[in-house]
Design a protein that fits this description.
Elements: H1 12-21, H2 26-68, H3 75-82, H4 85-114, H5 123-140, H6 142-171, H7 196-211, H8 216-220, H9 227-236, H10 238-256, H11 276-284, H12 287-321, H13 339-356, H14 360-394, H15 411-426, H16 429-434, H17 437-443, H18 445-461, H19 473-478
Helix pairs in contact: 1-6, 1-9, 2-7, 2-9, 2-10, 2-14, 2-15, 3-4, 3-14, 4-5, 4-12, 4-13, 4-14, 4-18, 5-6, 5-12, 5-13, 6-10, 6-11, 6-12, 7-14, 11-12, 12-13, 14-15, 14-18
Length: 482
């Protein structure tokens, strides 16, 4: 008999570190420079704070559902049960596509970071080597993935803390040869906000890309040994993680590097291989530390790619279990690893990777495309939670019976929905105003994919919007193991 089940062997420490480190990667260490270059230090901070608030509410919403109903399909499964099966189908394939593309972005970045030391090495050979290594790690067992992610995440979390300490001491003039830098770069030339609202909105996508991965806690729930204990613990720390690792990092970078610096990713003379974190360490005058920081950036991007490969494969596996993807993708090996789901994800990610290696502009386009599809997934989480809580109360159940309760309901999910819609519509205002069809197709490709998937499933299976009275929350609770 063929295996089709995953193993619940991820420990609490695995889930906590995955939730913490899964979103610390390309976006924070590399693309953060683009944010400051585009909108100035103040504009970048506004974008990251706004997305941070949105993500916090999203994670509390996801935490409530994932604790109550821990499944690897996570929010695609929730959308199927609480909104409409067609929406669950569309969100699941959208999310899989998102991480397959993000995997390509991370693999491309790995080669660029390594070229910091070895500029003559072949980009595609570096990226392909790491793709094979990550595929092997994920094929062994979910435990090998969890342990790898735990140690990689530990390194980058430690690095961010050290960076914040060094950055603060540099701002105060205790380190470095330039004296106290203070906050002068926040008023340098057109700073703090450069380019007005359009520029800030455009940074929302980059910020959103940086935060992608925080929802991994919902995916890992299906393979957690103790979800009712592990998930609440990981979710409760999200607020401080966002504040410490994102808001403070952007604030320090904005203070130490002027937005006009040619070394920031996104500026005309920008070098994609140089991270703002590396530049800060160079400024302190410790070249060895800059090399070490670049090594840390390498581990962080490897970690992000590792998480992306895992998340995409589990989503595809879950879709197959629900009959929304070919049955072959639900097969697992003796260790509970969905082999075919992993192989297809790696194949698509590898194909996307080779298109990204043609030039830096492809890198920026991939960031924009994957950032938008991430927002769509987040909207699905927020709306699913809104429907779940209403159905739960509609059946007469008590909130005190929930192992984890999202705070500020319904304000949290409603704010996430409204902010998410605004960001999606306004993330490429210039192309909308100028009606640049080519650019619009790229910027809003995530919406196009979502609509096509939704329409296909809706027409083929004649699905309907699930009424609150038809949502059997009690049955959902009993049958959370697929």
């Amino acid at each position: 008999m063929e295996n089709t089940d995953v193993n619940r062997s991820l420990k609490t420490r695995h889930l906590s570190m995955i939730a913490l480190g899964g979103s610390i990667g390309t976006g924070l260490f590399v693309a953060s420079g683009s944010s400051i270059s585009t909108a100035g230090p103040g504009g970048a901070l506004i974008a990251y704070v706004a997305i941070g608030i949105m993500v916090y509410f999203l994670m509390t919403s996801l935490g409530e559902m994932a604790t109550y109903m821990p499944v690897s399909g996570s929010f695609a499964t929730y959308a199927t049960k609480f909104i409409d099966p067609a929406m669950g189908f569309a969100l699941g394939w959208n999310y899989w596509f998102n991480w397959a593309i993000t995997l390509a972005v991370d693999l491309s970045t790995i080669s660029l970071v390594i070229k910091y030391w070895f500029p003559g090495w072949s980009s595609w050979k570096i990226s392909l080597t790491f793709l094979v290594v990550l595929l092997v790690i994920n094929l062994i067992s979910v435990g090998s993935f969890g342990e790898t992610e735990y140690w990689l995440s530990s390194i980058k979390v430690t690095a961010v803390i050290v960076f914040l300490i060094v950055g603060a001491l540099t701002i105060m003039g205790i380190l470095g040869n330039d004296g106290a830098v203070g906050l002068s770069n926040y008023t340098y030339k057109k700073a703090p906000i450069v380019g007005g609202i359009p520029a800030v909105l455009s940074v929302f996508v980059v910020a959103g890309f940086s935060f992608q991965g925080t929802e991994l806690i919902g995916i890992t729930a299906g393979e957690s040994a103790t979800p009712e204990k592990s998930i609440p613990k990981a979710i409760k720390q999200v607020f401080w993680r966002i504040l410490l690792f994102y808001i403070l990092s952007i604030a320090v970078i904005g203070a130490l590097i002027p937005y006009t610096s040619p070394n920031l990713l996104g500026s005309e003379a920008g070098d994609i291989a140089i991270s703002p974190f590396t530049i800060v360490f160079k400024r302190v005058g410790i070249p060895l530390a800059a090399g070490i920081m670049n090594a840390v950036i390498l581990t962080s991007v490897i970690s992000a790619a590792n998480s992306g490969l895992y998340a995409a494969s589990r989503m595809l596996w879950s879709m197959s279990k629900q009959g929304m993807a070919p049955k072959a993708f639900e097969r697992t090996n003796n260790h509970g690893v969905p082999v075919f789901s992993l192989l297809l994800t790696a194949l698509v990610g590898g194909a996307a990777l080779f298109t990204s290696l043609y030039g830096d502009s492809f890198y920026e386009l991939l960031v924009a495309a994957s950032g938008l599809t991430g927002f769509i997934a987040w909207l699905g989480i927020a709306f699913s939670h809104y429907r779940f809580r209403r159905a739960y109360l509609n059946k007469g159940y008590e909130l005190d019976d929930l192992k984890y309760k999202a705070k500020w309901f319904p304000f949290g999910p409603i704010l996430a929905i409204v902010l998410g819609i605004i960001i999606i519509i306004g993330q490429d205002i210039r192309s909308l105003v100028n009606f640049n069809v080519g650019r619009l197709l790229i910027s809003y490709s995530g919406l196009i994919i979502l609509f096509i998937c939704w329409l296909y499933y809706k027409l083929r299976y004649k699905t309907k919007f699930v009424k609150l009275d038809d949502i059997d929350v009690a049955e959902t609770k009993k049958n959370h193991h697929f």
